[in-house]
Specification:
Blueprint (H helix, E strand, L loop, with lengths): L2 H9 L1 E3 L4 E4 L10 E3 L3 E2 L5 E2 L5 E8 L2 E7 L5 E4 L4 E3 L1
Antiparallel strand pairs: 1-2, 2-6, 3-9, 4-5, 6-7, 7-8
């Protein structure tokens, strides 16, 4: 058993890639909409604030928890939990 397997077993998370973990208990988050707490930029550089993106996935990368969200026009970006309120 590797140290990665040990961490995944203790935290209830699954390894995805070299340094990324995803929570196994995110079924209640996926598909929900969230409200942005402050303006953010998507991958294309557009500033977003008044929109309510949909959560696609929860990701833990380098011990940082993030949500991959998708806006109504299809653009996606990663947001930290303190940047959104789950509805």
């Amino acid at each position: 058993m590797t140290s990665e397997d040990d961490v995944a077993g203790k935290t209830g998370r699954k390894w995805r890639g070299k340094n990324m973990l995803t929570s196994l208990n995110t079924a209640e988050l996926i598909g929900k909409h969230c409200k942005l707490q402050r303006p953010v930029r998507d991958h294309e550089g557009r500033s977003r604030f008044s929109e309510q993106p949909r959560i696609i996935r929860e990701v833990n990368n380098l011990d940082r928890r993030m949500y991959l969200v998708q806006f109504d026009d299809g653009a996606t970006t990663f947001l930290f939990p303190d940047e959104v309120v789950i509805q």
